[in-house]
Amino acid sequence: MSPFILHDHFHEVNLFIFFIIFVVGVSFGSFLHSLSIRILNNKSLLHGRSQCDECHKELFWWHLIPILSYFYLKGRCYFCQKPINIQLPISELLLGVLFILYFIQFDTENFIFYSIFSSLLLICFITDWSSMQLHFPVMFLMMVIGILFNILLNINSISFGLKFSVIGILAGWLLIFSINQIYFFLRKTNGFGEGDKWLLASIGSFFGLEQMIHIFIYASITSALWGLFILTIKMATIKTKLPFGSFLCFVSFFMPLITVYT
Predict the structure, then answer these.
(1) Are 73 and 1 contained in the same domain?
(2) Which residues, 6 or more positions from 181, have their beta carbon under 8 angstroms from its beta carbon?
(3) DSSP letter at 66?
């Protein structure tokens, strides 16, 4: 067989694998967006078909094809013609791209854990951005995943992996708690939401102390830049609260890749 034909064969196989990974990612993104909205609306997570958020009519299967349905329907509900939340295709595309980047960069074990952790981060990102709500059961599950990840990563020294995660949890929680206490003392109001310290703790369980601090710093910078932007275009006032948890999640999505290339 010609080496050129062999090379083309492997190229086609790789493209097919990337396509499958992308489809899995966007499908997870679609499902997790729906799950997040159900959490916010206190609906059952397991029962009931997907509905339009506005008219509450049950959607057909072809309304639920990730990314494609949004553009086919021109961003509007098939029934009531109200705009579909732009978060939906963004969530789908984001997770699809992240899955591919993780798959390219990491081995199978790391790819699986990064994908699972980012999926849980996406739920927190959506709920915080939409309603400034962070749900403890999701963050608790993130802590469990983080501890398990670091134990398996250090299987020859389980105590080291456990210690790595526990220090990250405590440091993340205490960092937000301490800053918030100082802010409250100076301004007589909270600077962070109640869920932010648990979110940073769950991030610390996965990434450890050093990377958790980097995530906090980068999230602070990006949230400040976003705040300046929406102030400039008059979408907000100086008293407008920002969903800091969403910025923590956003930076955490890319931290594994940032770490590789720095």
Answers:
(1) yes
(2) none
(3) T
Burial class (CB in 10 A: 0-12, 13-18, 19+), 244: buried
pTM of the full structure: 0.90
Tokens linked to 86: 């732009």
**Residues 90-118: pLDDT tens digits?**
999 999 999 999 999 999 999 999 999 99
Residue 39 makes CB contacts below 8 A (sequence gap 6+) with 45, 123, 127, 135, 138
The four Cα atoms 176, 178, 180, 186 give a dihedral, to 10 degrees, of -160
Range of the domain at 89: 1-105
- Number of domains present in the structure of the chain: 2
139 and 120 together in one domain:
yes
Would you call 87 helix, strand, or coil by DSSP?
helix
Specify the pLDDT at position 160: 92
Chain centroid, CA 134 distance in Å: 12
Same domain, 203 and 74: no
Q: Are residues 131 and 254 in the same domain?
A: yes
Mean pLDDT of 16-21: 92
Structure tokens at 211: 């990377």
CB 97 within 8 A of CB 252: no
pLDDT digits (tens, 9 = 90+) for 128-155: 999 999 999 999 999 999 999 999 988 8
Given this model, what pLDDT does residue 53 score? 74
Per residue in 163-197, pLDDT (tens digit) is 999 999 999 999 999 999 999 999 888 989 999 99
Q: Are residues 114 and 100 in the same domain?
A: no
